[in-house]
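Standup notes
- HV: blocked on the assembly model, inputs below
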Amino acid sequence: MSDSRDAAVAAEPDGSEGDGTRPSGADRNDATGSDAEDGNATGAAGDGERNRNATDPAATRSAEPSTEGNHRREVATDRWLGIAGAALALVGLGVLVRQPSLVLAGAVGVGYAVYARTGEAPTPTLAVTRSVSDEAPAPGDEVRVTVRAENAGETALPDLRLVDGVPPGLAVVDGPARVATALRPGAAVTFEYTVRAARGDHEWEPLTAITRDVAGARERTTTLDAPTAIACTPELAAGGDLPLRGLTTVHHGRVPTDVGGAGVEFHATREYRRGDPLKRIDWNRRARTGELSTVELREERAATVVLLVDARESAYVAADPDAETAVEASVAAAGQAFSALLDGGDRVGIAALSPLDCWLPPGSGTVHAARGRETLATDPALAPTPSGERFYRSLWLRRFRRRLPGDAQVLFFTPLVDDTAATLARRIDAHGHLVTVLSPDPTTTETAGRRLTAFERRQRLRTLRSAGIRALEWGDDSFPVAVAAATRRWSR
Amino acid sequence: MSGEASAGVASDAGSASEASGDESAGTTAGDDALVDFHETDSRPPTVAIVASLAAAGVAATAALVASPVGGALLGVAALGLLGGSLRSSTRVLGWGAAVGVVGLAVAGYRGAPAEALLVAAVGLAVAWDVADHGVGLGEQVGRGARVRRNVAVHAGASLLVGALAAALVYGVSLAVGGGQPVAALALLLAGGIALVSALR
């Protein structure tokens, strides 16, 4: 627990239900603040004295002094439904058959019925601290999360169940993020679990506390906000040499073009014109025929590239439930392409085909590299789980085209699991931005339906290729291997 | 869990991501992509099942001493409670408890002594209560979580209430003397209920 971000929260009783038997929040804050260990800011608030939160030193030390938004409701569990009926039936039978022992047994049942009717689900006043072992883990690292909940109230909690709000993008790999216990006033429960870090910014959702009365007849659900976050930003792996298409800027770079001029690769010969440099004159031909001619070389220019990642909800597919999604594969590949292209001197931007807006304009330089890494790692549009909002294709396309520089080409990372992606690729290509489709393969071949899906996807790739769009797919083999294999196939 | 076991289907599989892949190219990867550890094991915790079985065993033994038929019915009730726990079904638990109540009635009808019947009644109530509590725990926190203290407190409270109630009624019945007619006992009970409900 080298690094921890904690917050302390307490649920407050409803104003309507506050029975006034609890002491003021200040006493409690002093008590819990004094035993705060290793820098964990601990605070508690209670009894609807929300104003105290702002002024109390213990509360202001916590990251989020506010405990607003706690959602509470008390419901009857109806567990004991019918116990009174069964008890009275026994009593009645005992009277009918004149057996006093039956009446006594029925009386015990009546005792349980009374037990079920007394009591009320307590409102928990909990000081919750959550600490993580690493706030900035690398992807795949295991992060130990420790949650401590102390009963800062005056009432005992005979039945307390805590369910931590693990961020949806993180998988719990060890120990459930839940516990059930009973807490005296002042007692605390600590539970630990391990999550596997995944790319992105992950913020914990509020802890859910469920309390029941002793008999379990009434139940109250409370959410306790204890803000914790981890940021997992992967290093951009240096990718291989990514072949670009011949849409370039006027600046020098490394994309061979069909423009004759200075360069290294032979392009054409033409008649000598006055002023041509001496070293480009074809002296062999001069010796053979006596004519002066000039050798033209391919100019190598820099390109403007926009990496477009398909992050619509339909792109969050994987070959099996435990595998990484196509979006993850796309983002990883885009990261490799990003660093490779930047190293090659091209201007690179990032966009997401997603309901959320994500746009990093093409640029170059180390600041831009850092910004690109940040975008790929933590942009909400590229989050490890879908956002759930609706995607409007035509709106998105209009906005994307307005932003796209005229000389930009597009590297489109998409699993191609629906026709929308293929259509968009063709439309962007038709508008003059040369498109290369790079497609992680999420399909499997176990059943007929899956084979059909794989076939449909292959058909889309074929259609794209026949429309003159470069397409590359990679499945189990890594992205650089697939690029290297495809580069040999592609002509310029 | 069947949805999670079958790979590659565009399943909902209890994943909170609510991803509705429009084309089933693969599974929409849920947020709980678990390899070796399943947090969603919603079976009741073992300690609750064991405690419930122990209480049901005590109840069945006590009834068996008094009346074989009643004891057999309480044995059936214990099996029903076990089955309900294993299937995480409160409905099965309810039926099990109902069979147990019938067993109590039969044992009482056959003239079981009050002591045995009281032990059987408390045992049955605790057994059902703990089993039902376990099912609720399984739903809310799952089998893997730490629940021992919670179950112990719940079972202890349930046993305490039962013991107090049994001691009270047994003491009252001794105090008023065995010669009283049964109707007097029932009227006494009705008076007690009225008193309690008036005090609340």
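- HV (later): unblocked. Chain B has two domains: 1-40, 46-177. Chain B touches chain A through 85 residues (CB under 8 Å).
- Next: hand off to the docking folks.
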